[in-house]
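Morning run. Coffee first, then this:
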Amino acid sequence: MKEQILKILRARRGDYVSGQSLCEGLNVSRTAIWKAVKALREEGYVIEAVSNKGYLLKELPDVITDSEILSQLYTKEMGKHIYFYEQIESTNNVARLLAEQGAVHGSLVITGVQTGGKGRLGRSWISPKDEGISMTLILKPQLAPVNASMLTLVAALAVSDAIKLAGLSCAIKWPNDIVIGNKKVCGILTEMSADMDRINYVVIGVGINVNTENILAELKDTATSMLIEGGVPYNRALIVKNVMEAFENYYHIFMKTEDLSGIVDVYNQRLINRDCLVKVKEKGGDFTGLSKGVNTKGELIVISDGVERAIGSGEVSVRGISGYI
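And here it is:
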């Protein structure tokens, strides 16, 4: 009920909403309304109550609780069921467990603090308390397992949309990083449980540096945050909402063909290492070449020694010739 009350108070921001109208609209008692408002106040919302006027939403906290996200989310599937935790080790680990226990398609796991986050190739992901976004989306698509890796690119487009809506220019570094000013602001990790011919579930972990003021010294050359780049704090729940809505749109386009044909042009327009010399590090050895963007399978096309090669996003790292980009 908290998210329903928040949604109504948001829609009437600046006006009082009578307790009676809330009771009638939600078909609950005044006591139930009062308890929900009390719970919202405890979460940091400043809600004024005046006799004969009703409730007025005056201030919103920067929280990423289920109530805050759902009160402004307009999707059909993505993020409609939220599992919020004050602190957990890894949203991907929890999401996998929930998926195995029957969590529905589109469920979202999100936390204020992640103590053991990880990225691609076993790298760690630092998640300071209440500064960033650590979340994992659970998907149960009717999709061939071989096509699941493309969902990372779908997610990258959605995150870049949300960052752009916040007023910041950003780009995608294939396959799973979002960069601002040539520095990483977001990482995405996709994991899958599947049989030979069917997917049981896919979890897509997203970590965004939002209001982080201080980047670890060893990461300052390659990492940044939205706050550092934009100079102002950002509402994290709004970013989550925009990611979910953008992902739902791109996901449905992707599922129509089960490849990137419907969004590959948009992706390549945002690809920071397109038409650039890159160094590809893979198990068979390193090589350099000219990146020409991705194909409809999500593979990076690299021309090396006159030969066009399609690079999958598995155990591969792609960097610039002289650094991260």
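The chain has a mean pLDDT of 93. Good start to the day.
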